[in-house]
Write a structure and sequence with these properties.
Length: 496
């Protein structure tokens, strides 16, 4: 069996290195270690994933058998800037769980990584010493455990974008798949673009044939013997939480109310919180009292809200032949896309709670206007028990709509090729279901599992994929439709 084609379990990242514009991703050869632990340190929280896959070649499939995960209590590690050792301490509960979940004799052979994303990139911008202290504290804690610690570091936006793309396409078996004939082959069905909306940054990544006018956004990848040229860009401060902070700061600056919040909603905001982020620097008054609280009410004004959101994007100058926004090079969006994280939550809210269709850009815009036009009482009546971020869905929907249409340049046709899915993070590459569905479970209706014709027969992988991404049924149908729509060339069995 040849080296690159013998992997069915999710590719395990052994390491990465960015040199120039080449990103080298190492994937484990077969046979692989049996367990791995990844800590995905996001801006608002950290999750731990333990994955496991059989090392035996017996069945030649290498399906991930089971996993566990753990949510670290409290905020993201970047929230411990004033108390770095607290960041390390916060991980202890999950690491203790890892000691129990991984058999003792496997501890020493189990790789352990921590990858931090945009929350730590921001902290490194404002207070590099604090970000170093946090990473040092976290490293100190992680090395207290018997696992094979491979490092704790801040991922670049480019890495985050590319890992998300690799993950999504791996899970969709766009790189390799296991055919009915019992052999690996390269499906050659093309890849899907990936769009991720996190708390502090947003990434867009897709394969392109357009010339790279800005080498910083071009990544060459070699995966399973194939060459891929990928465009990627990460917009720091364009994650959902930071966007909301920036809109709040703009509302304070230009209005005495918040046009994106519902009428009847009002709250007190601490100025220190609004202006402490480097993302709100542009709106920061020259002097302000950081311990003062300001009261702000919503006005349910879709048009003013749209204007406020528009202010996040600048189209005034572009040093390249074409740009997305803020002078950032971007070739035309090409092919189909998967949009996940907060993209999914936003669109899912519009569909599920508001009952609004979002199949076209025009519908998405109308849905955003509709949400923004609701009073607080109307919203609460519609969405009982969802109060936490309810007032922010208008701004979130307006932002997603403008980012996709004006920002990235999706037109109706391109938008038709975007599917919204729950979760594909770079670290979530390892986010496998709790237990491998048995054949009966998988076949039983109502368990969320069904075979997807055309995606292949790599044993249980397609079923796991559907569960992993927790697709509602219509999403799975559109996924199926999508996989059928993709250009397909006759697949060639690989040399084994
Ligand atoms: C491999 O195949 C054997 C016999 O068909 C089966 O009992 C076993 O559960 C399989 N292992 C995996 C990991 O699927
Ligand atoms: C912080 O940013 C600087 C400049 O980009 C970089 O050299 C450094 O490695 C970063 N620190 C960490 C801990 O990643
Ligand atoms: C800042 O605000 C706090 C809380 O309202 C107040 O106690 C304090 O006097 C203010 N400081 C200044 C310099 O205005
Ligand atoms: C907002 O809602 C009111 C009724 O509640 C309706 O008359 C108005 O046309 C709506 N405006 C928009 C822009 O949808």
């Amino acid at each position: 069996c040849s080296y690159q084609l013998c992997i069915c379990a999710p590719p395990i990242l052994l390491g990465w290195q960015t040199g120039g514009t080449q990103l080298h991703v190492w994937l484990t050869p077969f046979p692989s270690p049996q367990y791995g632990i990844v800590l995905d340190a996001g801006s608002s929280h950290t999750s731990m994933f333990i994955y496991k896959w059989p090392a035996d070649k017996e069945n030649d499939t290498g399906i991930v058998g089971q996993h566990s995960s753990c949510d670290v209590p409290g905020g993201g590690i970047s929230s411990y800037a004033d108390n770095p050792s607290g960041a390390g301490q916060s991980l202890v509960g999950c690491l203790e769980q890892a000691l129990r979940d991984v058999p003792k004799e496997r501890h020493a052979g189990t790789p352990l990584y921590l990858g931090a994303t945009a929350g730590m990139r921001l902290l490194n911008l404002t207070n590099p010493e604090a970000s170093t202290s946090v990473l040092t504290a976290v490293t100190h804690t992680l090395t207290q455990y018997p696992f094979d610690f491979r490092g704790a570091r801040i991922l670049s936006g480019q890495e985050e974008g590319v890992f998300g793309w690799v993950t999504a396409n791996y899970l969709l078996e766009n790189f390799i798949k296991y055919g009915w004939v019992g052999r690996w082959f390269r499906p050659r069905k093309g890849t899907l673009g990936a769009m991720d909306l996190g708390g502090a940054s947003t990434q867009i990544t897709f394969e392109t044939t357009s010339p790279a006018e800005d080498r910083a956004s071009e990544v060459q990848l070699r995966l399973y013997g194939q060459h891929y040229r990928v465009y990627t860009h990460s917009f720091l401060c364009y994650g959902r939480d930071q966007v909301l902070q920036r809109l709040l700061a703009s509302a304070l600056q230009t209005h005495s109310f918040h046009p994106c919040w519902p009428r009847g909603f009002s709250t007190h905001v601490l100025l220190g919180d609004v202006y402490q982020s480097p993302c709100t620097v542009a709106q920061r008054p020259q002097t302000f009292n950081s311990s003062a609280w300001v009261s702000l009410s919503g006005s349910s004004d879709p048009h003013l809200c749209r204007d406020l959101v528009s202010g996040l994007f600048s189209f005034s100058s572009c040093p390249f032949s074409r740009c997305s926004f803020n002078g950032v090079f971007q070739p035309p969006v090409a092919g189909n896309f998967i949009a996940f994280s907060a993209f999914f939550y936003t669109v899912d809210f519009l569909r599920t709670f508001m009952g609004l269709p979002v199949a076209t850009l025009q519908q998405l815009e109308a849905a955003a206007v509709n949400v923004c036009n609701q009073t607080w009482a109307q919203l609460q009546a519609r969405v009982p028990g969802q109060q936490a971020h309810l007032a922010d869905y208008c701004a979130g929907a307006m932002f997603v709509q403008q980012l996709l249409s004006r920002g990235y340049g999706f037109d109706e046709r391109a938008f038709g090729g975007v599917i919204f899915q729950k979760k594909v993070g770079w670290g979530l590459m390892f986010n496998m279901p709790k237990s491998r569905p048995t054949d009966t479970e998988a076949a039983a209706p109502g368990h969320g599992g069904w075979a997807v014709p055309g995606i292949g027969s790599c044993a249980h992988l397609p079923l796991q994929l559907l569960r992993l991404l927790e697709l509602p049924r219509r999403e799975a149908d559109s996924l199926r439709a999508l996989s059928v729509r993709l250009p397909r060339k006759p697949s060639q069995p690989a040399k084994v």
